[in-house]
């Protein structure tokens, strides 16, 4: 069973959220680098349930219309529900300035499903703050996922290369497009630079896009 956030302490952009925790982040002790959620020494981290790279999370299959049976009798395909999706997160950062975390959804159901739009992403810091990530300006394109196929989106963020402790993220709550049941995954990358949200300090998510054209093993 996954952890679902029943309330958000705050919904704001990364700039507003980091500004609010700036004082605490700069005055707090560096703390134990081995604290839960800290991945500065490792490029990836496990989610609540072990699975693919970065760990996999599975939604509560008893919630909502989680069966995900595709209705093709009239040329229609059901939306991809959390109950038929596996979620994994991986750190794909290759730049010293701009970080990338990729979240992948895999259809493990027995029928086709449709996924389209932006996911919801809420991030939790080691200080207990929670904030939502803004969408970027890309156009969302509807995708059809067959059994075993995957779709993914990217979270881009400013890399903390200042030498300071930065803002440490622990978990992220990811909700597929047009769904209400989220996945809780470990943040697989390092800390964020403390910024005022201007310039390179913006954190954004892309729409979900299909990344495989044939069933994966």
Write down how many β-strands occur, each being a DSSP E stretch of 2 or more residues: 13
- Estimated radius of gyration: 17 Å
Point out poorly predicted stretches: 1-55, 60-74
Helical element count? 1
Question: Which structural class is indicated by helix and strand composition?
Answer: mainly beta
Mean pLDDT: 73
Description:
This protein has 217 residues and is mainly beta. It has one domain. The chain is built from one helix and 13 strands, in the order αβββββββββββββ. It has one helix at residues 14-27; strands at residues 56-58, 85-91, 98-107, 113-115, 120-125, 130-132, 134-135, 143-145, 150-158, 169-175, 183-186, 204-205, 209-210. Strands 1, 2, 3, 7, 9, 12 and 13 form a seven-stranded mixed β-sheet that branches. It has a four-stranded antiparallel β-sheet with strand order 6-5-10-11, with no helix packed on it. Strands 4-8 form a two-stranded antiparallel ribbon. A hairpin with a 4-residue loop joins strand 5 and strand 6 (130-132). The longest helix has 14 residues, at 14-27. The protein is elongated.
Summarize the entry for a quick read.
The chain is mostly beta strands and 217 residues long. It has one helix at 14-27, and strands spanning 56-58, 85-91, 98-107, 113-115, 120-125, 130-132, 134-135, 143-145, 150-158, 169-175, 183-186, 204-205, 209-210. The longest helix has 14 residues, at 14-27.
């Amino acid at each position: 069973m996954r952890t679902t956030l029943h309330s958000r302490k705050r919904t704001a952009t990364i700039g507003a959220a980091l500004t609010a925790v700036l004082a605490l982040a700069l005055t707090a002790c560096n703390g134990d680098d081995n604290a839960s959620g800290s991945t500065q020494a490792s490029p990836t981290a496990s989610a609540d349930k072990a699975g693919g790279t970065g760990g996999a999370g599975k939604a509560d299959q008893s919630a909502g219309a989680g069966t995900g049976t595709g209705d093709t009798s009239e040329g229609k395909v059901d939306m991809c529900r959390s109950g038929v999706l596996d979620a994994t997160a991986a750190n794909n950062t290759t730049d010293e300035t701009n970080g990338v975390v990729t979240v992948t959804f895999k259809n493990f159901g027995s029928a086709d499903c449709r996924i389209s739009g932006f996911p919801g992403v809420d991030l939790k810091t080691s200080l207990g703050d929670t904030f939502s990530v803004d969408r970027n300006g890309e156009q969302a394109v509807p995708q059809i996922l067959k059994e075993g196929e995957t779709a993914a989106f990217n979270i881009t963020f400013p890399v903390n290369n200042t030498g300071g402790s930065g803002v440490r993220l622990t978990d992220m709550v990811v909700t597929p497009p047009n769904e209400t049941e989220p996945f809780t995954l470990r943040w697989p990358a390092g800390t964020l630079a403390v910024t005022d949200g201007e310039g390179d300090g913006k954190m954004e998510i892309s729409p979900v896009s299909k990344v495989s054209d044939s069933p994966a093993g």
